[in-house]
Amino acid sequence: MRSVVAHVHPEHGASAAVAAAAGLAPTEVWQDGERRWLRLMAGDADGARVISRPQCGR
After folding, report:
1. DSSP secondary structure letter of residue 45
2. Which among 11, 28, 45, 54 has most CB atoms closer than 10 A?
3. Structure confidence by residue, pLDDT tens digits, 32-42
């Protein structure tokens, strides 16, 4: 399993848009004032596929 992680400051809408366009979803995890975004994938380097996207509960 592979994952892609980004930490996005809540005031940086453009960064959140880039993360969403890359298939990441916001999580409930915060670090240093930034929300963690995550995309989980399974497969090898040639055929990775998304297996789950975290839900964002507000």
Report:
1. T
2. 54
3. 999 999 999 88
Q: How far is CA 11 from CA 5, 16, 39, 51, in A?
A: 18, 9, 21, 29
Dihedral (CA of 53, 54, 56, 57) sign: positive
Task: Say how far apart CA 58 and CA 4 lie, in whole Å.
Answer: 22
Supply 29's token pair: 């995890």
What is the C-alpha to C-alpha distance for residues 31 and 23, in angstroms, rounded to an integer?
Answer: 20
Q: Is 23 exposed, middle or buried (0-12, 13-18, 19+ CB in 10 A)?
A: middle
Helices marked H in the chain — which ranges?
Answer: 13-21
Can you read off the two tokens belonging to residue 34? Answer: 């930034």
